[in-house]
Amino acid sequence: IDLDRFKAVNDTRGHDVGDRLLVEVANRLRGCVRETDIIARMGGDEFAILQAPLDGPEAAMALAARIVERLGAPYHVGGQRLLVGASVGVALCPDHGCDPQTLLRRADLALYRAKLGGRGSLACYAPGLEEDTTERFVLEQDLRAAIASDQFTLAYQPVCDTQSLAVVGFEALLRWRHPVRGAVEPRLFIPLAEECGLIGVLGQWALETACAEAAAWARPCRIAVNVSPAQFRAPDLPARIAETLARTGLDPRWLQLEVTEGLLLEDTDAVLETMRALRAQGIGITLDDFGTAHASLSYLRRFPFDTLKIDQSFVRSLGEDAGAQSIVQAVLTLAHGLGLVVVAEGVETEEQLALLRAMRCQLVQGFLIGRPAPAARVREQLWSAADPLLPAGQAAAG
After folding, report:
1. What's the pLDDT tens digit per position in 270-284?
2. Which one-letter DSSP state was computed for residue 199?
3. How far does CA 285 lie from the centroid of its chain?
4. What is residue 71's three-state secondary structure?
5. pLDDT tens-digit profile of 171-184?
6. CA 303 to each of CA 272, 286, 349: distance values in angstroms, whole numbers, following the listed order
7. Using CA atoms, how far apart are residues 219 and 393, in angstroms rounded to an integer?
8. Residues 6 or more apart from 155 whose CB is under 8 A from it?
């Protein structure tokens, strides 16, 4: 059992709060098990449970699910509300081994597999995980080398006004060109970077590069940069971004930071404070992939977003799934009522575009509109375009 986001608690709230949180975690674990089970703290924020006697694999997975649920509920420590959560790996005796070392190692392998599914996940050991873990280790070493040897680039995907299809900005997308593997998909290296603590370095590089590129464009244009929850939790984020903008010469009103719903399940007071500091600088904030996580609708009122991005899973079902169309329409109605600009991502067909126009969605993004392109091509497009581009939040309503 490994706690999620525990390091952030230690870093931002201090080790005393972290220690008290561990006590609360231990108390919750006691409430999950039977008298015959044994709980141990293995070190740091890692725990293990020996469940004996075992009533079959189903009982072990039921315990794992119970742990994920209970450890994911908010904690109140020293007057502070904390959210950490847990990931769990399971190994069974005799199926996966009979000696303690083998069982612990294979439960740990299952834990790594669980983490690849995102925070608050669980997994049971299966044959082949050793090979997967070896591959992961090699990829992690390659990732560290890639950062040191400048193997990363940014691709820029246009965001357009839905009615006129005029370009109003670009989203900066991180790309890794491995010298042997070729293009490594972001869905593989982004979670790995988060897990091994490299996402901050990668995120800062992407921010610096995107701001420098956008500042040098022929005409001002909105540039959207994704910010991971790990980056956003850093208390000095507003100051570092202000330094980046000053160093690159980009006007803050042209920078749009994209965050996911999962961030809102963190320490919301600290997140709110950071968002307000960023907005005070004139920086826009987009809630990305809306509708795919567990954020409450009330967060749309509480947090100072100016843009909402509808997840592509809903957009791609437009014209085929009446339920998806109803969801998109409901999101648009809600967002417009709150004064938010809406971007529909994943637009790939003329039918999807036509429906979004009819529903008065302001902005669109997707392969139908334009594929991600290198910085050099974007510079050429901006030199040749005649119409002025619009800053974030000033796109035509449609």
Report:
1. 888 999 999 999 999
2. H
3. 14
4. helix
5. 999 999 999 889 99
6. 6, 11, 33
7. 17
8. 172, 173, 175, 372, 373, 374
